Amino acid sequence: MSYMTMEEQIASHYAFLKEQNFVIETLNIDRGFVRCCASDQVAGRGEFCYQTQKNQLLNGMVGLATWCRGEGGQIKTHKTYGQASPRFSVNEVRNAATEKLEEARKAEIFWQMSDEVGEAEYLLKKGVGFYGIRFRCTDYGKIAVIPLRDINGKLMSYQLINPDGSKRFAKNVGIIGLLHMLQRPINGLTIGLAESYVTAASCFEVTGMAMVTAFSCDNLESVGLELRKLFPQSPLIVFGDDDRHLQENKGRCAAFTTQRELGAGCQVVIPNFEGYPISREFSDWNDYIRENGVKAAREAIQNALKTN
Please, which residues have CB within 8 angstroms of residue 113's CB and are 6 or more apart in sequence? Predict the structure, then answer.
């Protein structure tokens, strides 16, 4: 593994995006998702997007990671490993690490102050159980608190699921690589991976396998890679969404991109809503289970795995 200065890393990620046909003037770092266009597109359409983040490495250095969606919705990633440089001094690196620890400390306090026993209105509506989560009663109703942990189980942040189904993350916290294990996996046994807590809980109840939520289709690949490192002998099944109602089927694309990145030992199962209206209400495994029942869902999953 070769280490690069921050200037070299920035140049590398800039060149990577240019190779993917992105039109960018400067590389935006830690700014969330940046929309832009390809060289052959009309300026301002913003069909391409990318996100570049600084990552604190174990040796105190700082690396960069870029996720991008480009031509045809194809998702690619680029990572570099770095050294402290005049642009990002050792003190700045330490400050970034301190800020990250402070956010984790706030999340821990919020988690400890949340109720261990309770209800969440939206999860009751969706007909799923409560696995490793906590609860809060607010003016808006009874909400779920889903922990965001790193692969080693350290609490880093949380997601709130409101009674109307809207989701909210703590401010200034990136979710890339963070996850929630509904049940601790065992190396060698199959692990299921889903975008949302509701889908993960639904599939856990149908299959009985250890399920993990990545919180977003954009995070499936990163979480899948983390799981592969910690549980190298475990087959992985991605329970993908079928976002037919969107111009770009993000759920399906992200699921199969994750499969390609992980290679052998990773399968994708996506619910079949042929004959149903093209709607957000018919897009994930929870929708399929509520429409067709547990037995039909179990058979559909088994059949999909056989033909995969």
Answer: none
